[in-house]
Design a protein that fits this description.
The protein has about 375 residues and is an alpha/beta fold. It has two domains: about 240 residues, Type I PLP-dependent aspartate aminotransferase-like (Major domain) (Aspartate Aminotransferase, domain 2, 3-Layer(aba) Sandwich); about 120 residues, Aspartate Aminotransferase, domain 1 (Alpha-Beta Complex). The chain contains twelve helices and 14 strands. α6 links the parallel β4 and β5. α1 runs antiparallel to α9, α3 crosses α4 and α5 packs across α6. The longest helix has about 30 residues. Its cofactor is pyridoxal 5'-phosphate. Belongs to the DegT/DnrJ/EryC1 family.
């Protein structure tokens, strides 16, 4: 079975983990701090705060933005459900907005259609690694706090710079489906030093001095807890893997973009099939390679998934629509035509660093056979 995604690991990651184990310090410590510095430098951000997941990064970003009960936050429904869930963790209400069908991202117009007098912030997702036009949204809505959900976008570019460069608050994922993985884990990048210091306290129960800092300095002074915090820490074991993965990232993206270009060329021969591409203002890292089906395709998306599986190809449904899930049935039903069309008519094809041309040919042949009925 050709998998949708396969992480790219080598002996370097194994050696990095062994080194951390030999050091005797495996929890949050010096490797986490090093990973924070290197990742922030890579995306041209002022500060990085390593966390247990992108979901926790989104939660802390909203806390830093002052979002709380009574507030509303505009989010795309077309996103993994964690985007909306993070809003509810603060006691605020997510308000679902539609997306541009070409990029699957929010736009200034779709944010405008969803906002109300209670709107405090918006979470702008770089869906599947395709950068959103953050400058356009910021210019149209300067009074809103903007949180960039770059869970899938490490290594993508926006207006000639890395995605996340200059973002006020930007959340990242290192889940195994992402290009850069630490198994589980995430990062919050931001430009504000005080905000970064507060986020580091909040990730460790609100502790005034981290356990790693007390150990490093030999301090015996008791820590203080000035506000209610969380347990959102990353371990040095994870960060050691992340440091190696970060150095692999440029090579990984180059390979994925080459495979994506080949997919686009081969699938252009299948009538009506749409493929994800770069927007005019940036480049995607092709974290996922999705296609859309025309209205006259011989089978629906779910039938196509089963057909592909029968031909040895593991594909996945396209991006979910959170507003259609039972968890959000209590909210008013929004009118999101682009979102609902995309979630019904898109699917994700296999794409990974070690994918061979023969495997890619097998995927395309299966799609072509389905198109021919």
């Amino acid at each position: 079975m050709i998998p949708v995604m396969r992480p790219w690991f080598g002996p370097e990651e194994e050696a990095a983990v062994q080194e951390v184990i030999a050091s005797g310090w495996v929890a949050q410590g010096p490797r986490v701090a090093e990973f924070e510095r290197e990742f922030a430098a890579f995306v041209q951000a002022g500060h990085g705060v390593a966390l247990s997941s992108c979901t926790t990064a989104l939660h802390l970003a909203l806390v830093l933005a002052g979002v709380g009960p009574g507030d509303e936050v505009v989010v795309p429904s077309l996103s993994f459900i964690a985007t909306a869930n993070a809003v509810r963790y603060t006691g605020a209400t997510p308000v679902f907005a539609d997306v541009d069908p070409a990029t699957a991202n929010l736009t200034a117009k779709t944010v405008e259609a969803a906002r109300t007098p209670r709107t405090r912030a918006a979470i702008v997702v770089d869906q599947a690694g395709v950068p959103a036009d953050l400058d356009e949204i910021r210019a149209a809505h300067p009074e809103l706090a903007l949180v960039e959900d770059a869970a899938c976008a490490a290594g993508a570019t926006y207006r000639g710079r890395p995605v996340g460069a200059g973002a006020e608050l930007c959340a990242w994922s290192f889940h195994p489906r992402k290009l850069l993985t630490t198994g589980e884990g995430g990062m919050l990048t931001l430009g504000d030093a005080e905000g970064a210091a507060r986020a580091r306290r909040l990730r460790e129960h609100g502790m005034s001095v981290s356990a790693a800092d007390r150990h490093a300095t030999g301090s015996t002074a008791p820590e203080r807890y000035t506000e209610v915090g969380f347990n959102y820490r990353m371990t040095d074991l994870q960060a050691a893997v992340g440091l190696v993965q970060l150095r692999r990232l440029p090579e990984l993206i180059a390979r994925r973009r080459a495979l994506a270009a080949r997919y686009q060329e081969l699938l252009a021969e299948v009538p009506g099939i749409g493929t994800v591409t770069d927007p005019d203002y940036g480049t995607t890292n092709y974290q996922s390679f999705w296609i859309t089906l025309p209205g006259d395709f011989p089978m629906d998306r779910d039938a196509l998934l089963a057909f592909l599986a029968g031909r040895g190809v593991s594909a996945r449904r396209g991006i979910m629509a959170a507003h259609l899930e039972p968890a959000y049935a209590d909210l008013p039903t929004p009118d999101l035509p682009a979102t609902e069309w995309l979630t019904r008519n898109s699917l994700i094809l296999p794409l990974f660093h070690t994918m061979t041309e023969a495997e890619q040919d097998q995927v395309v042949a299966a799609v072509r056979a389905a198109a021919e009925g």
